[in-house]
Amino acid sequence: MIVAWTTGEKGLIRHEIAGSAIPAEAVWIDCIDITPDEERTLEALLHLDMPTRAEMQEIEASSRLYREGGAVYMTATMLIKTETEQPENTQVTFILSRQCLVTLRYAEPWSFRTFSARAPKCRADTAELVFICLLETTVERLADMLEIVSLELERIQQQIFRRKGPSHNLDLERVLYKIGHCGNISSKIRESLVDKNRLLHFAESASTEWCPEGRSRIRAVLHDITSLSDHASYTAGKIAFLLDATLGLINNNVNQQMKRMTMVMLAVLWPALVSGFFAMNVALPFPQSGAHWPFYLCLGLAFGPLVLGFAWWWRQQRRSKRH
């Protein structure tokens, strides 16, 4: 599908293109999952060499950012499915010329959907300003996602380090999943910010015809990207800290379980040892003369240390709860 946007009194006007009827005054041509026939038609009408989908996925900077035939070609990595728990990457190519901006994409990033809704009230009347508005909306969405990750990490931190309340019922496996989910989103945000920073620097240097408003807005977006990159680095450090803390809690719980198992084994083995020792016809080292008290002495030797050990453990538990 091809959508052309022209300037109007209040903002941009949307035109869905059928065939080769592209308005000459279009400032933005949005190509969404176009067919090979539509691609050839656009190349003939706009005199541009449209990159293929395989070329858009190249990772070399020379293949993603270059100037050709008076137009600037810039391929950016955008995030899609940002409303879900598993955002994905997709490539979007911006072809910026003096007449119009051509965007080539095969998915629906949040920034394009949002800007398309804002465009009828947007004052962007040139291709450069439309390009900047799209990137501003993209950075805005990345900032929102980073804020959501920060809030989720704050909730996880409160759950992990809660000293009172139902912290002993905390599902550490679920916490590990949440931390991994936050780390995945944070890494994608950071990767996208680095990509946008490189793209904007190239766009600013590749074209010397930026209007004063466009150049100032580019620098403002670059400043926002720098601030968000610093915040993303802090978030990555916090994720590593919470991951270490969670793994430490898991190890501590395993040690506590092993300690309880050791206590249970001692409680079972000691009476068995005492009863087995005296059941093997081993005489007591003093005269018995048919009395019953040696039997109770054996019971005391078997279970007395267990009672004393339990009393000491219970006292330590009460003392720890007071502190």
Set down the secondary structure blueprint.
Elements: E1 2-7, E2 12-17, E3 26-32, H1 36-46, H2 53-56, H3 61-64, E4 65-68, E5 71-80, E6 88-96, E7 101-105, H4 110-118, H5 127-160, H6 172-206, H7 212-279, H8 293-322
Helix pairs in contact: 4-5, 5-6, 5-7, 6-7, 7-8
Summarize, please.
The chain has 323 residues and is of the alpha+beta class. It is built from 8 helices and 7 strands.
Structure commentary:
This protein is of the alpha+beta class and 323 residues long. It has 2 domains: 2-252, 2-Layer Sandwich (Beta Polymerase, domain 2), CATH 3.30.460; 253-322, no CATH class. Helices cover 60% and strands 15% of the residues. It is built from 8 helices and 7 strands, in the order βββαααββββααααα. A 7-stranded mixed beta sheet has the order 2-1-3-7-6-5-4. The longest helix has 68 residues, at 212-279. The chain starts with a strand and ends with a helix.
The total domain count is 2
Total strand segments: 7
Order of strands in the sheet with most strands: 2-1-3-7-6-5-4
What is the helix tally? 8
Briefly, what CATH class of the largest domain? Alpha Beta
Which characteristics define this entry?
2 domains; seven-stranded mixed β-sheet; Beta Polymerase, domain 2; 8 helices; single chain; 60% helix; alpha+beta; rod-shaped; 7 strands; 15% strand; 323 residues
